[in-house]
Amino acid sequence: MKPARLSQTVVAPGCWGELPWGNYYREALEQQLNPWFAKMYGFHLLKIGNLSAEINSEACAVSHQVNVSSQGSPMQVLAESATPSFCG
User: Fold this and answer.
1) Domain extents in the chain
2) Closest CA to 32 of 57, 2, 12, 5
């Protein structure tokens, strides 16, 4: 009998282009988010990860937008990912 849990390492994509049909998904997501960007308010918009950093958020009224990731560009904050001690 096979175990129900397999230990596989999943690598997060570095950009939308690394996913099958990734650029189309990004464009579809931007089309859905654009009407909401006009309604968003606040002081900071934190975009975590390479994929969210690539999303065009120019229509957002939040003036201070920060991209955070462990690598890539355009990132304003480089952060290390840490595995909590209770995971694996």
Assistant:
1) 16-78
2) 57
Can you say whether residue 21 is alpha, beta or left, with left for phi > 0 and alpha for psi between -120 and 50 degrees?
left
In the chain, helix, strand, coil percent, each to 5? 25, 15, 60
Give the Cβ contact number of residue 51 at 10 Å: 21
CB 58 within 8 A of CB 48: no
Taking the CB of residue 67, how many other CB atoms lie within 10 A of it? 22
What are the tens digits of pLDDT across the range 20-36? 999 999 999 999 999 99
Residue reference for tokens 């579809």: 28
pTM for this predicted structure: 0.72
Nearest-5° angle of CA 59, CA 78, CA 84?
A: 110
Residue 23 contacts residue 3 (beta carbons within 8 Å): no
